[in-house]
Design brief:
alpha+beta; five-stranded mixed beta sheet; 8 helices; 7 strands; about 10% strand; binds iron/sulfur cluster; binds FE2/S2 (inorganic) cluster
Length: about 250
């Protein structure tokens, strides 16, 4: 396959950025999207040009490091899929693909396609933890939690903190990310100690970081690679108001 790429290049946080045209030749449909970019970078380095900076780590859809907007969609066209798990068979020979970084004030561009997502770390540090000693893993059958509740909590725990929800939201809201963590803990006994303070602290930190609010339009849910539902945001809002009125 031969592809025409328009890739965001930006030398640093304060430099002006622009889309630069590249041609990716000899791309196998079996390559992942990031492997395709690796091939482009090999060509750039061989010519003495600077490689395109982009984030990745596990390349297995687990770590949440990869963060590309492909043709205007965070993580690209496949639903429930991180961009590292997107494959080139999804595209056609001759296609033009535009590749940009997450765009949000709270996620400033570091270089090219790499953004600084440490704001998420600070939100987690503000309240996304439990203080109780949970000990070793007990036998699953001894845990007195209804299966539906434990499954809802574990589905929320699936959030990988990638930030696609923020990138897709016109308000750059971090609500889906926060609601995943708040739901995970609010549903389980281990999360009850900080239940009220957690939701208040996380939302306060998100406001301080410059994330916007939620206008309930669902772009976040549509791009979330772990398919975290926006019903979690409704739960977080209930948790917030209950905590505010205490
Ligand atoms: S809620 Fe989904 S899109 Fe948002 S950070 Fe978590 S995994 Fe990524
Ligand atoms: S590189 Fe880890 S989720 Fe994509």
């Amino acid at each position: 396959m031969k592809l025409n790429l328009k890739i965001w290049r930006q030398a640093g946080p304060t430099a002006a950025g622009r889309l630069v045209d590249y041609v990716a030749d000899g791309v196998s449909p079996d390559m992942s999207f990031l492997e395709m970019l690796d091939v482009v970078n090999e060509g750039l380095v061989a010519r003495g040009d600077e490689a395109i900076a982009f984030d990745s780590d596990c390349r297995e859809g687990i770590c949440g490091m990869c963060s590309l907007v492909v043709d205007g969609v965070a993580h690209g066209p496949d639903r429930g899929t991180t961009v590292c798990q997107l494959h080139m068979r999804r595209f056609k020979d001759g296609d033009t693909i535009t590749i940009e970084p997450w765009r949000a004030k709270a996620f400033p561009v570091v270089k090219d396609l790499v953004v600084d997502r440490s704001a998420f770390d600070r939100i987690i540090a503000a309240g996304g933890y439990v203080s109780v000693n949970t000990g070793g893993a007990p036998d699953g059958n001894t845990i007195p939690i209804a299966k539906t509740v434990s499954e809802a909590a574990m589905d929320s725990a699936a959030c990988i903190g990638c930030g696609a929800c923020v990138a897709a939201c016109k308000n750059a809201s971090a609500h889906l990310f926060m609601s995943a963590k708040v739901s995970h803990f609010a549903l389980l006994p281990q999360g009850q100690v900080e239940r009220a303070t957690r939701v208040l602290a996380m939302i306060r930190q998100a406001d301080a970081e410059g994330f916007g609010s939620c206008s309930n339009e669902g772009e976040c849910e549509a791009v979330c690679p772990k398919e975290i539902p926006i019903s979690n945001i409704a739960r977080m809002t209930r948790e917030f108001w209950k905590a505010s009125l205490r």
